[in-house]
Amino acid sequence: MASVLMDIQQLEKKYSLGGGFPQNRPRIVRAVDGVDLQIFEGETLGLVGESGCGKSTLAKLLMRLEEPDAGSAYFKDQNIFTLSAEALKAYRRRVQMIFQDPYSSLNPRKTAMSIIAEPLTVHRMGNRQQNREKAVQLMIKVGLSREQSKRYPHEFSGGQRQRIGIARALALQPALVIADEPVSALDASIQAQILNLLKDLKKDFGLTYLFISHDLNVIRHVSDRIAVMYLGRIVELADKNDLYETPLHPYTRMLLMAMPSCAPGKKKRDMMIRGEARDAGDPGCSFKNRCVYKIAVCENTQPRLIRYQGRGWCACHRAGDN
Known about the structure:
single chain, 9 helices, alpha/beta, eight-stranded mixed sheet
């Protein structure tokens, strides 16, 4: 069995949204609410959920772009939230990120070669000529050419800009790459090219991915295991085949029911959707207001993420009943 690369324990991040009048109380949003998750070396762990569920906040926490309110995350037995400045710099060599927007994540005043070489310069990995040559080689590796190395971001298409972002993420030879919706801003035909490129690079560089998306078709294509997130919590975690064939959590079923399919004659799962998401601070299950299977215990007791008959992990009081 592969060793654990990242071990996330009871991670929390809250934001306070204040009102415009004195009588309005601040509203607390639990963007990440007690997340427990392990990422194994060499795997692609898919993280899926609707917009606003906390996926990107979790990514920012793991990159140390945000600081948690509670919890820990161990990267090879080191808690990343207690690292010294020097140790944090070393950590960021080992963990890199591919951002969602392939244009705003690139410096418009720098050439493609300079953008890719910048991490090497910051971390003092070689002299200027060596770093430039490595940047060019990475451009070729991701499907660009040497002749394009002196072009600026606005001279590339969206898919090409994302290839530059991927090359930059690989420059420091990271162990873990966090891909936050890396294809959501691209056309469908380009999405397939980028996804296949990421799969090839994983083999060539021995990478581990945390792949974040709201698109279940994309997640299924790239992932080994899938974690489903709802209102800041992991509600289901399973091997991708188990999750798609026998989902345990009602929210997972709801997501799968909403998936578009081109398969003729394919029957959709029949599940009624109702209600709105619960308010922050309400007791009980986070999905109770939208769940057709809820029982009395769901009103006041938040279900724990527990293993279900060796099939996977689920946070539901009625896991597998329906």
